[in-house]
Every structure is written in C-alpha cells, then in structure tokens.
Amino acid sequence: MPGLVVVGAQWGDEGKGKVVDLLAEQADLVVRFQGGNNAGHTIVRDGEVYKFHLVPSGILYPGKLCAIGNGVVVDPKVLTSEIDDLRRRRIDISGLRISANSHLIMPYHRLLDQAGEAKLGKLQIGTTRRGIGPCYSDKAARLGIRMQDLLDEKILRKKIYAAMEPKRLTLRPFAKDPELDLHTMTEEYRILGHRLEPYIADTAPIAWRILDEGGLVVFEGAQGTMLDIDHGTYPFVTSSNPVAGSACVGAGVGPRSIDEVWGVAKAYATRVGAGPFPTELDDELGEAIRGVGGEFGTTTGRARRTGWLDLVALRYATRVNGLTGLVVTKLDVLTGIDPLHVAVRYLGPEGATFEEFPYHQSILHKARGDLIELPGWHENISGCRSIDELPRNAQSYLEYISDFLGIPILMVGVGPGRDEMIWTRAAERVRAAAA
Ligand code: IMP
After folding, report:
1. Ligand 1 interacting residues, C-beta cut-off 6 A
2. Residues with Cβ within 8 Å of residue 422, at least 6 apart in sequence
3. Which segments of the chain have a pLDDT < 70?
4. Probe ligand 1: pick from 227, 295, 299, max atoms within 8 Å of CB?
5. Which atom of ligand 1 is nearest to the CA of 130?
6. Strand, helix or coil for residue 401
7. I want to staple 57 with a disulfide (CB 3.0 to 4.6 A). Which of 21, 149, 172, 391 is the partner?
8. Cα–Cα distances in angstroms (integers) from residue 182 to residues 75, 130, 165, 339, 388, in the given order
9. What topology is assigned to 3-91+202-434 in CATH?
10. What is the pLDDT of residues 2-19, one digit of tens each?
11. How many angstroms separate the Cα of 183 from the Cα of each of 47, 141, 187, 326?
12. Interior CA angle at 283 toward 285 and 277, to 5°?
C-alpha cells in the first residue's frame, strides 16, 4: 500500500489533518504537496492542543519523516515559530524535511495580498491575507525565491531585488515600511535560513526510496477541491491545486506511485470567504450548525458559512480527484436535525436543472441545490465505533452518499477526539497493510 493521497473534497476544513494524523502512525513519510499557511489544523493529543499551519500532520510521532514538498509555499517566519513551539514542548522533530525547491512567502507577498483585496472592495475573494496568491504568482513569473536561496546571501539579495523591482509601483503605499528595506529583508531571511538549514533537503528522493521499499507515503493535501485554481469556483479559489493530481507535482513523484485517493468531506458543507455555495443555509439552522460544529477558521478565526451536503459538488470532486473512497467527518454535528437535506442536482434560473456541476460561472453563481429529504437521528453517536452501531437513519444517510458517489465510505468521524472515529474494514485494511 505505498502511495495514499488525502484531499479535501469540499471547500477545505473537512478535517484532513485528523485523518492524516491517524494514518501517519503507520506511515513511513507524510508529505504536504501544496498550499501554505492559509491552511490550519488543530490536533489534540493527551489533552494538549497543537495548532499547525505548515508542519505536516504526523509530526507528533517522534522522529516521523514529515516533508514539506516543493509545491508548498512557505512563510519562513511562520515555520520557524511552529518549530520553536514544538521544541519548547519537547516534541522530537528530527524527521522534519523542507524541500529546497519550495517557494518562500516574502513580506511583499503579504502586503500585496492585503492591498489586492482592499482594491477589489466588494468583489474581494476573502483570502487569508497570508500572501499565498502573490507568492504563487511570482513562482509562475519565475521571480520566486526558493528555500535554497536562503543559504546564499548574495543570491538571496539579488533575487529579492529582482522580485521587488517590478512591484515598485504597487508597493508604493508601503514604501516606508521597514519590512521592505532590501538590506533588512535580506539579513532577516538569511538568519531564518540559517535556522531552517538543518531541515532543508531534497525531499522527492526521500519519497522515491520509501515507495521503492514498499513503505507507506501519505500525501497530505490542504484546502479542498472546490478551492482548486483550475477546477474550483474560480476566481473564488486559492492559488494552488488542492486536487489529487497535484500530489505528484508538489511532491515529485509520478502518477504510478499513487495507489489510493481518499477524499475527506464533512457530513454537511462549509465555506470560508466569498464565492458560490449552492446549498448555503443563511438562517437559524445554519447558525446552529456553525455553533455545534465549531465552524470558525483555525487560521483567521472567521465564521464559516454553513450549508447542507452538496452531492453534486461531491460527485464532481470524486471525478476530478479519482477518489477511491470517502471519509465523512463530523457526522455527530447532524445529530438531532430531523429531517436532513442533501442536494442531488442544481436549480438554475427559469426552471433549468443541472445534474452535473456546471462549468459556467453565471450558472454556478445563481445555482441553488435541489434538496431531497432524508430522515435524521436523535441518539448520541459519539460512542459508535462501527457502522453497525450507528442509528439506522445515520447508516442510511451514509449509504445514500456512497451510492450517489459510487465509492465506499472508509471512515466516519463521530466526535472531535482522536478515537472518535469509525474505521470501516476497507480503511482497516490499509492500516494493517502498512503496519
Ligand atoms: P488564499 O488561499 O489565502 O489566497 O484564499 C483564497 C480562498 O481560499 C479564500 O476564500 C480563503 O478563505 C480560502 N481558503 C484558503 N485556505 C483555506 C483553508 O485552509 N480552508 C478553507 N478555506 C481556505
């Protein structure tokens, strides 16, 4: 069972971190392949709360190989502070590796992200303002600064100069910002590079070696399919590809190294930031789900928009990622909501219906989910550890999803705790094969 990709099948925040953390126990390597510190996840271990934005889930297993792949954009200040925090708490992070080819988020990227959003006004995307978009733009424009550049002061200074020059006009309002001084920036980043140096590596060959030996590599995606820059609800997306195909590019392996693709989806839907959301519940029920589900961003603290499960979008995510199975998280949040609804097609203007996810933005922006009703349940499900133990209606809800998508349900989250997870036989098989 060598290569297993874990991706978000919705708009991010599906609980991938917990799934990867559980799989990491058996994994020989966990590698993140895209995104940056726009992502965030919380892991509770032995009553201690750990919040990560960049470090891969899995770092809490002593010495576990955890790589930040070439496809990730790294804010070195954020990464060093995560490393400091883990060391302070005496976590063994000797297994951390950072790709020398990963790109760096620079101070001007953060400022450009903020300025860009401010300029868009009402049309803003609602980015996390962490500089993600401008950093990926520079990467594509071949003006990016990579992790390896931190290790050579002369190269670093030249590259910072070359990257800032074309932005001079846009950065004019920040001209006096000391963060943007070439010398100060070069010196600050040189020092950060010095601190990160022990972890900087050529990460792709680490994955190749483990795959060759038949070990388990878990490819950890960030954000979700509907935020994908190519396949999501453009332009209300992030600037990378959270879909499974990008695991190959962002970690440096070929498609033949991928054996399984697990999608993670909540039992309902959420979205942070602006953009289409056909099953949004802009009412008291939506508010209640937000409260029970604790739907506030780990990174920005923003309230997430909530809605019914959107099976049209989820079937699209199944195809785009080639999902081999689905992990359904937070099923417990739906306890007591009766009846439940799920969207099985979209309704457009003038009575039009759409069975498949529409590519056209004008349709998508006006689409509303055509909802069907499914019976809810009232029993507390947090103690269930197998599908059979779930109330009949909860089982039917999962069966309906699985039949609609044509893929098996692999795991089901029934509470926030690490052990509050149902492992189906298919998921257990992966765990056993890797052990
Ligand atoms: P950016 O990735 O900061 O450029 O933000 C672009 C869009 O993606 C915004 O709507 C963000 O709210 C959203 N986004 C980025 N990262 C995450 C995430 O980890 N979870 C949920 N939404 C995210």
Report:
1. 12-13, 38-39, 125-128, 130, 132-133, 222-223, 227, 236, 238-239, 272-273
2. 384, 385, 386, 387, 390, 411, 412, 413, 414
3. 1, 434-435
4. 227
5. 3
6. helix
7. 21
8. 17, 20, 11, 60, 62
9. Adenylosuccinate Synthetase; Chain A, domain 3 (3.90.170)
10. 899 999 999 999 999 999
11. 44, 23, 6, 49
12. 100
The one catalytic residue among 21, 28, 41, 149: 41
Nearest CA to ligand 1 atom 19: 39
Averaged pLDDT of the chain? 95
Instruction: For residue 349, give every residue at least 6 positions away whose Cβ sits within 8 Å of its Cβ, in sequence order, or none.
Output: 366
The fold of 103-198 is Adenylosuccinate Synthetase, subunit A; domain 2 (1.10.300)
- Look up 282 and say whether it is catalytic: no
Residue 71 φ/ψ, nearest 5 degrees:
-80, -5
State pLDDT tens for residues 24-47.
999 999 999 999 999 988 887 888
What are the boundaries of each domain within the chain?
3-91+202-434, 103-198
149 Cβ neighbours under 8 A, 6+ residues apart: 104, 155, 156, 159, 193
Predicted pLDDT of residue 112:
95
Q: Phi/psi at 237 (nearest 5 deg)?
A: -140, 175
Q: What is the pLDDT of residue 234?
A: 96
DSSP 3-state of 390:
coil
Question: Rounded CA gap, 394 and 382, in Å?
Answer: 12
pTM score, whole prediction: 0.96
Q: Give every CB contact of residue 286 below 8 A, 6+ residues apart in sequence.
A: 280, 305, 306, 307
388 has catalytic annotation: no
Are the beta carbons of 270 and 307 closer than 8 angstroms?
yes
- Tokens read off for 224: 């979700």
- B/e letters for 57-84, b = 16+ CB within 10 Å, e = fewer, are bbbbbeebbbbbbbbbbbbbebbbebbe
Q: Is the distance from CB of 321 to CB of 263 less than 8 angstroms?
A: yes
Nearest atom, ligand 1, residue 127 CA = 5
**13, 138, 149, 228: the active-site residue:** 13
Output the CA 267–ligand 1 centroid distance in Å: 20
The reply to whether 103-198 shares the fold of 3-91+202-434 is: no
Category of 337 on φ-ψ map: left (φ > 0), alpha (ψ -120 to 50) or beta: beta
